[in-house]
Design brief:
mainly alpha; 11 helices
């Protein structure tokens, strides 16, 4: 079994070339930073206009607006990895792995762990660039870690259920509905808000809102969300392995 560093050295350059030659994947990677810049420059102007024109104060909703970045980073990265999974499944790369020292399980660990690790600094950078809310580095890191499992959730969802990139894109558009229940949850008072926890995207936003608001009872939500997301990742991993073994 190759070491983790050897796996990264072997597969990392292949992934970079695959992303570099695909304009869709390049755009998906750039989207969170582009939106962070738009939020940074556009939101204060819109807030000022709403205040002058309608007397509406947008400032209390800045954490809600930042929530879109919290979700966007792992979902976009997960989409990129999902398309890479489809490409390498079509190229029979996963079949070829069965006669190499790198097992399918090792490959899937790489496919899930690296994007999760990448999503953490990207999300922290996006929140800092948007500059709509004031959160410390520790709070930002905790929110990013809680959201990281969303990356393999999206990737494995595409890889397990899509036959090609066209179907993958359609599935991702359909999965977009998952982003709205957590946003609606912002306007629901607890304890009823927890009903939205069936949606795995709720937990990163709940943790982010609590950290941004200075709440002290974040740990149960942090750990509970990670446990639920990990369970869903395990289910999708099993489904994906079944799909590539056919």
């Amino acid at each position: 079994m190759p070491t983790a560093l050897a796996v990264v050295r072997a597969l990392g350059p292949v992934d970079l070339k695959s992303v570099a030659r695909d304009s869709l994947l390049r755009w998906l990677i750039a989207v969170p930073i582009v939106f962070a810049l738009l939020f940074r420059w556009g939101t204060p102007a819109v807030s000022h206009w709403l205040g002058d024109r309608y007397g509406f104060d947008l400032t209390p909703y800045y954490p809600l607006l930042t929530s879109f970045l919290v979700l966007m980073v792992p979902t976009m990265l997960g989409s990129v990895v999902g398309f890479l999974l489809l490409d390498q499944r079509d190229d029979r790369t996963l079949t070829a792995l069965q006669v190499t020292p790198l097992t399918v399980e090792g490959y899937l660990v790489y496919r899930t762990a690296i994007p999760m690790a990448v999503s953490v600094p990207v999300m922290m950078a996006s929140i800092a660039i948007a500059d709509l809310v004031t959160v410390g580095v520790v709070q930002s890191l905790a929110a990013a870690i809680q959201a990281a499992p969303v990356t393999p959730l999206y990737a494995l969802f595409v890889g397990a259920f899509a036959a090609n990139k066209v179907q993958g894109f359609a599935l991702l558009k359909g999965a977009g509905v998952l982003t709205w229940p957590p946003i609606v949850a912002w306007f629901v008072s607890s304890p009823w808000q927890l009903a939205f926890g069936i949606d795995p995207l709720y937990w990163p936003l709940k943790v982010f809102w609590m950290l941004e608001g200075g709440a002290h009872s974040v740990l149960p939500y942090f750990l509970g969300g990670l446990a639920y997301q990990s369970f869903l990742v395990a289910v999708l991993l099993r489904r994906f392995k079944d799909a590539i073994s056919r």
